[in-house]
Amino acid sequence: MSFSSDIKQELNKTNSLVNKENVKFELIGYCVSGNVDVIKGKNIRFSTESDYNINRFSKLLSNLEINHDIDVNGKTFFIVTKALDIHKFVFLEIKEDAIFLKEEIKHLGNNVKAEEKKRAFIRGCFLGAGSINNPENSYHLEIVLSNENNLKIVQELLKEMDVHTKALITKNRYSIYIKEGEEISKLLALIGANKAVLQFEDIRIKKEMRGKVNRIVNCETANLNKTLNAAIEQISAIKKLQVDGRFNKLDDHLKEIAILRLKNPDISLVELGKLLKEPIGKSGVNYRLKKIVEIANGK
Questions:
Q1: Which homologous superfamily is 3-192 in?
Q2: Nearest Cα residue to 79 out of 71, 87, 67
């Protein structure tokens, strides 16, 4: 199964339908998702390829005593309600055969019961038309909503709950998405996918560690290449001075460091400094070798 399917299976199993109000708010989340259509101004049709998802939606409807039929066409499951009384769901209204979320849902309050309703609502949105990539490959969570009004309200509600998303609006698609690992983790925790959060964080930590290791290796490789290139330039300059007879004109300090460099082409400046009769530090060695290169280049 995909990572998305695992999460929806977990949400189906771990969130009970005991609290009628939470059931209602989860159903509201489904109703404003991109996989719901309105039929004849009062019935709704939900479609999905997930058997866990279709079972969850059916359970929500049954729990609220809403009659419905389940059908299947190829890989797609359908549920059509019979005479859904939209007026029972005070935060929803139908306009032009589309379901619209009311602004009032953002003002439920900040007590425990209100927070549970908000979480149930967002969970319904995700179950209705949400998806998430395998985090081993990339971080991308997306929830498709049925229209721009619903998108804006869901996005604002998530922001109030400290989950920050971005919006993608095209001609026939309205979605919010997250590409930051930390924000995805917060949303999964918000909707109650605790097992998925642990799995996601484990993958995220390993990816970050691999990234750090790669950056260190790349940095060390770059530094090594820089050191080797500098050594090659220094040795080339010294040999040039030897060939054209200018080497013997160098002062004793420059001659000493030049001879040591020729004998030790691959050691660091610090190590070169320690080999001198009167040891000096890295900056002193660097100064002398730079001076040799400048003289060789006629500066």
A1: Homing endonucleases (3.10.28.10)
A2: 71
